[in-house]
Specification:
This is VOC domain-containing protein. InterPro entries: Glyas_Bleomycin-R_OHBP_Dase, Glyas_Fos-R_dOase_dom, VOC_core. This protein has an 8-stranded mixed sheet with strand order 2-3-4-1-5-8-7-6, covered by helices on one side. The chain is of the alpha+beta class. The protein contains 2 helices and 8 strands.
Length: 110
């Protein structure tokens, strides 16, 4: 059910060293997506993506079979969502937060 964990870090090179050598994740590849560099790591069957940014944070992305159904359920429950479902490269993403402000998202592959 977890499609991806996204970790925003202060330095990609330091983060790659930490997450591969200290945590033990597998280095998969480094890619450019739009204007950002993303480093993809493997954690068992889950992908961990590292992005560089000014505010460190973690976002957990869950798989979705029907993002419209998930969106309606979140709306019914009053879940904070900064945007409506948005088409992205390879699918549709629906970011939201839990009651404590943790960043989450649903991802439906197209």
């Amino acid at each position: 059910m977890i499609a991806e964990i996204i970790i925003i870090v202060g330095s990609l090179d330091e983060a790659v060293t930490f997450y591969t050598e200290t945590v033990g994740l597998d280095y998969l590849r480094r890619v450019r997506v739009d204007d950002a560099t993303v480093v993809m790591l493997g954690a068992g069957g889950t992908r961990v993506s590292l992005l560089e940014g000014p505010t460190p944070s973690v976002r957990v992305v869950f798989t979705s079979d029907d993002i419209g159904v998930d969106h309606r359920r979140l709306v019914r429950r009053g879940t904070p969502m900064p945007i409506e479902p948005t088409r992205a490269r390879g699918g549709t993403v629906l970011p939201f937060t839990d009651p404590w402000g943790n960043a989450l998202a649903f991802w439906e592959t197209s």
